[in-house]
Specification:
single chain, mainly alpha, 9 helices, 95% helix, 0% strand
């Protein structure tokens, strides 16, 4: 305003070439800026009204922008360096607060990401455990298949050994038959066949030794077969145990997964509540700071308005003074320079304000991003809340079911106690009634007996007294008949009076007895009511005591449940560590065990292959022995035929020795040579030599 007035007055002076043109340009620019600002202010006011009507929370960046606009609108002509520095300081404070909020949000995000990573890692571990368990089960099935194949091979070997045993028994039978035949032949043959028999016996012994060796090999193979069976059974049991351990480890891992999931859900709930509280606190602090800043800005704006008004007054005074000093043009030029300088400063402040608005827009964008992230977090929190509500509903249902069961038990116990006490009351009232009736009857009888005895005693006394009077009257009135009549009449009256008195007293006693019966009944009713009140009080006391006991038991159960939950959590934590270590050791042990099993299986296969080769070699040996036995039988038959021929020749020689002793001696001497040439055997040659010596001795 003061610029407009100054410009108008300057133009009205006389220097119309330089100063008026600058002021007019400034006025045009200022009018355009004012119109633009008024339009923007009207738009902003409408937006604020719409936001207030819709109940939308105002953005802090927008609030700061509004403050800047108000500062521009209210003090755009008078902004100095101090106001700009104050605004920049406030702006730096807002930026720092925004950075702190972003840092806190980043920390919260990192915590959430860490928890999600931990849950994902646990899920991966569980999946790995499941895959390993599946692989282990496949390995176990493969081992079972291999063991079944080995068992089938052992069954085949067992059948083969059984067949070999049968063949060996047949061989033994044949051997025994051969030995019997040899013994028979040896008995039939001559004593001169001793060496041949010895050789055959040696061969038979060799055969028996071979048979014993085969039996020993058969026993060793049987023992090895039994060992293989034992090892197969042990491997089966070990594989079953390992499968059970793997299943148990899997079940424990699943339980651990569930426990860890619940634990992370609880921790996530705690973090969520803490984050919500922290966000609320930050928003409250930010709103409080914004209010303080708004108050400070309003206060500064009011101060600036007052100072600007004062400056305007001062400038107007100066202008009035300057009107009288129009001749002082250098001073006006200096004022023009100052105005140019102020214009440059205003342009610089506008630029700084534009940069500040850009920064505000950036902050608004970052705020929008943060709001979007907060909305995402809120959605996650809502999901977690829904999950938590489902878990809580399940827990509440379980608690309601437990409460219902406990209430049902309480009702049952109450009904049982009430029935017991009602039975006791019924029995007590019946007993009291019977006792009161018996007591009443006894009292009534006693009262009647006492009244009767008293009346009888009184009657006796009256009778005795009247008898005495009668005797006296009789003694006195024997003289006259009239006295007798009077006496009889008097006695009649007296007796009548006595009877009436007795009847009256009996009625009185009956009335007293009836009153006593009524009193006893009232006392019985009172006692009954008192017993009922006492029983009701006892029932109430017992029910109260029972209720207190149930409450104490319920509190104790709740405490025990909490303690048990805490202890179970502690145990789960320790068991988790133990299970991790055990799983590592189990994995290592399983790997080593698998290698050992593979080695043992390969070793068993090698042993089985070796045993099969041994069995094949034994079969070949048995076949060779069969062939050798056949060859020996043939040789024995041939030798027997040759021995018979030699014996015949010896007999012929002996028969012809009588004619030609020289010829016989020559034949006897040639006999060992002939046996050597024929049999090519040292035992037969020695036998023939000894036979020749014997023949020579016989001839000589």
């Amino acid at each position: 305003m003061w610029r407009k007035r100054a410009g108008w007055r300057i133009t009205g002076g006389g220097d119309t070439d330089t100063v008026p043109t600058i002021e007019e340009e400034e006025e045009v620019e200022e009018e355009e800026q004012v119109q633009e600002e008024e339009e923007s202010d009207s738009d902003e006011d409408e937006e604020e009204e719409e936001e207030e009507e819709n109940g939308v929370a105002r953005d802090p960046g927008a609030v700061a922008k509004e403050i800047v606009v108000e500062m521009q609108r209210n003090g755009r002509k008078d902004m100095d360096a101090s106001s700009i520095s104050n605004f920049l300081g406030y702006w730096e404070h807002l930026v720092n607060a925004e950075k702190r909020a972003e840092k806190q949000m980043a920390e919260l995000k990192t915590e959430l990401e860490d928890s999600e990573k931990e849950m994902f890692r646990m899920r991966i571990q569980v999946q790995d455990l499941q895959r390993e368990s599946i692989a282990k089960t496949g390995g176990m099935e493969r081992l079972q298949a291999e063991l079944s194949a080995a068992y089938k091979e052992s069954e085949f070997v067992r059948r083969k050994l059984k067949r070999l045993e049968e063949e060996l028994a047949n061989f033994k039978q044949k051997n025994s038959d051969l030995t019997e035949e040899l013994s028979k032949k040896a008995e039939i043959e001559n004593e001169n066949d001793y060496w041949k028999v010895m050789e055959l016996e040696n061969e038979a012994k060799e055969l028996t030794r071979r048979v014993k060796e085969l039996e020993a090999l058969l026993s060793t193979t049987r023992a090895e077969r039994d060992d293989l069976k034992k090892r197969v059974d042990e491997l089966l049991t070990e594989s079953e145990e390992e499968r059970k351990l793997a299943q148990e480890a899997l079940d424990e891992a699943m339980a651990e997964k569930i426990a860890m999931q619940e634990k992370y859900e609880r921790e996530f709930e705690k973090l969520r509540s803490a984050n919500i509280d922290r966000e609320q606190k930050m928003l409250d602090d930010f709103e409080w700071k914004l209010r303080e800043v708004e108050q400070a800005c309003k206060k500064r704006l009011d101060d600036k308005e007052q100072t600007s008004k004062q400056q305007v007054r001062e400038v107007e005074g100066k202008l009035t003074v300057a009107e009288g000093k129009l001749a002082q043009l250098p001073h006006l030029k200096q004022c023009e320079q100052e105005l140019n300088h102020l214009r440059e400063r205003s342009i610089e402040t506008q630029r700084s304000l534009r940069t500040a608005t850009r920064q505000l827009e950036q902050l608004q964008d970052s705020d929008k991003q943060q709001h979007e992230e907060i909305q995402q977090l809120k959605q996650l929190l809502e999901k977690e809340k829904s999950h938590l509500t489902t878990v809580q509903s399940i827990h509440y249902r379980e608690l309601a079911e437990k409460d219902r069961k406990l209430q049902f038990k309480l009702d049952q116990q109450k009904t049982e106690i009430n029935s017991e006490w009602e039975d006791k009351m019924r029995r007590e009232t019946q007993r009291i009634k019977t006792e009161s009736d018996r007591h009443h009857r006894t009292e009534k009888l006693q009262a009647l007996d006492e009244a009767k005895s008293q009346h009888q005693q009184k009657l006796k006394e009256l009778e005795s007294s009247w008898e005495k009077k009668h005797i006296a009257c009789v003694k006195e009135g024997e003289s006259s008949f009239s006295v007798k009549n009077v006496y009889s009449l008097f006695m009649f009256m007296v007796r009548k009076k006595v009877r009436e008195e007795a009847d009256r007293r009996i009625q009185q006693c009956e009335l007293n007895a009836q009153h006593q019966v009524g009193a006893s009944r009232t006392t019985i009713e009172l006692v009954k009511e008192q017993m009922q009140r006492e029983s009701q009080q006892q029932l109430q006391q017992l029910s109260e005591h029972h209720r207190r006991q149930l409450e104490e038991q319920w509190e104790q159960l709740v405490q025990e449940r909490d303690d048990a939950i805490a202890m179970i959590e502690q145990k789960h934590r320790s068991s988790m560590e133990k299970l991790r270590n055990e799983l590592d050791s189990i994995y290592k042990g399983k790997n080593s065990r698998e290698t050992e099993l593979m080695d043992t299986l390969s070793h068993m296969r090698q042993e089985l292959s070796g045993k099969t080769t041994q069995i094949g070699s034994l079969e070949t040996n048995v076949e060779e022995l069969q062939g050798n036995l056949e060859v020996l039988n043939c040789e024995v038959n041939n030798k027997a035929q040759q021995i018979s021929k030699v014996m015949k020749e010896g007999e012929e020689v002996l028969s012809s020795s009588e004619s030609s002793p020289m010829r016989t001696t020559m034949t006897v001497l040639l006999l060992p040579f002939l046996t050597w040439l024929v049999f090519n055997s040292y035992p037969f040659t020695l036998f023939s030599f000894l036979l020749a010596l014997a023949l020579l001795l016989i001839i000589c």
